[in-house]
UniProtKB/TrEMBL annotation:
GO terms for molecular function: DNA binding; transposase activity. SMART domains: Y1_Tnp. GO terms for biological process: DNA transposition. This is Transposase IS200-like domain-containing protein. Residues 1-132 form the Transposase IS200-like domain.
Amino acid sequence: MELWHALNRGVDKRTIFEDSQDRARFVHDLFEFNDEKAAQNTSRSNMSNLRSRSLLVDIHGWCLMKNHYHLLLSERVDGGITKFIRKLNIGYAKYFNEKYHRSGTLFQGRTKRVLISSDAHFLHILHYLHLNPLHMLKETAAWRERRIASAARALTHLRQYRWSSYLDYCGKKNFPSVITTTLFKDVFGNYEQALASYLKDVELEGVQSFLLE
């Protein structure tokens, strides 16, 4: 199995999630477009119920920020990641443009992808995704440089931010139908404790060579 980190952001770094409805729609699309079959309905009003699917990918982690998204993916079928990301980007852009009465490109280009090719990268990458929301708080924005006044405050913020896979890894059902947690839970066990230790103890400068931004 190959694990890939995928990232895309808004064209000219524009906002791609204006409100919680947009974020919820994107999470819905993570489910809806992860299927070898065509989506049933991609209109803005449709939020279909759970249904039987033939998965293109396994989604091992995700995080939504104001102007970009992160995904951790492995393929179920040959070419599954390419097909899934294409469907996801086109489908969400269609929804967004319809809602906000705009036209044209929403994302800055092709989704960037990097293969998780080392043990060190593997052990960092899920934590990195889940720590991204710390950029939203002044006192935790410098988490990459280990300049955080309060790890407890940082963890509280992560528990309150529902637009990532963090809560599902902590055993709190958030969007459990979207992801598979087995791969990383087999490694980390109690994920909440694992991330807390990482935040306090790990030299985050070592992450820089792995980043896509």
